[in-house]
Amino acid sequence: MHLIPVQYYICTIFSNIDKVIEIFKQEFNAKDFGKVTNFLGMEISRENGKLMIKQTKFINKIFEKFNMTEFKKVDTPMELNFQAEQNQEDIKVPYRQLIGSLLYVATITRPDIMFPVSYLSRTLDKPPQATWKAAKRIVRYLMATKDIGLIYTVSSNNLISYSDSDWARDKIDRKSTSGNIVLYGSNVVSWFSKKQGCVSTAEAEYAASIQDLVHLKEINKDFASFEDTTLLVDNKSAICMAKTF
Questions:
Q1: Band of the pLDDT at 206, cuts 50, 70, 90?
Q2: Which of 54, 69, 149, 239 is buried most deeply by CB count within 10 Å?
Q3: Predicted confidence (pLDDT) at residue 203 exceeds the cutoff of 60
Q4: DSSP character string of the chain
């Protein structure tokens, strides 16, 4: 992993191929600062051909900032079937700051908390007591799992996308939430959890999954020899839609 400033931007390149690094230097007049071990709250290490990324120190800062170092740890990031109730009295707490910190962790290294963080981010303006408590539960879960991160190894060039959605789980508008994770060989490279924009589960699940996969497929063509792309869903309607193209 190399740290390369590109004009006014800084990007990280996950590659041991000198040719890729040279292309960035020539195309963007970039400078190579060499292998990086810390970058924007990420801790990067290498061992036996594996690249490991975690955010232990950043998570510790969250504990301290929100005075939760002494709270009891939990084994799950959210209670089963949790629903944010409407018309509850909102409270004045640093909810937006906490969700922002958790969203950064979820986006960078922790797909396991992507759903609860995304769900709780829907009530940023006036959070009730229940959602504040649910947000602190995610922090308590991170206390027990702060050393968990992502591991990358050399693998095949095929892309595999897993997609699913709940069924009209939101009690207010009956819209579903879609979840997706994409693997490059055995390595997790993309994930998301978001509320669907329409009531049709099949249409939303198919559209959300295929857009991300097509984007990654084109990137894969530029940087590696193309092998295969697979989208795995369990929605029969979505499967029929895919077969028509």
A1: low
A2: 54
A3: yes
A4: -EEEEETTEEEEE----HHHHHHHHHHH------B-SEETTEEEEEETTEEEEE-HHHHHHHHHHTT-TTSPP-SSSS-TT--PPSSPPB--SSHHHHHHHHHHHHHHT-GGGHHHHHHHGGG-SS-BHHHHHHHHHHHHHHHHHTT--EEE----S-EEEEEEE-SS--TTT---EEEEEEEETTEEEEEEEEE-SSS-HHHHHHHHHHHHHHHHHHHHHHHS----EEEE---HHHHHHHHT-
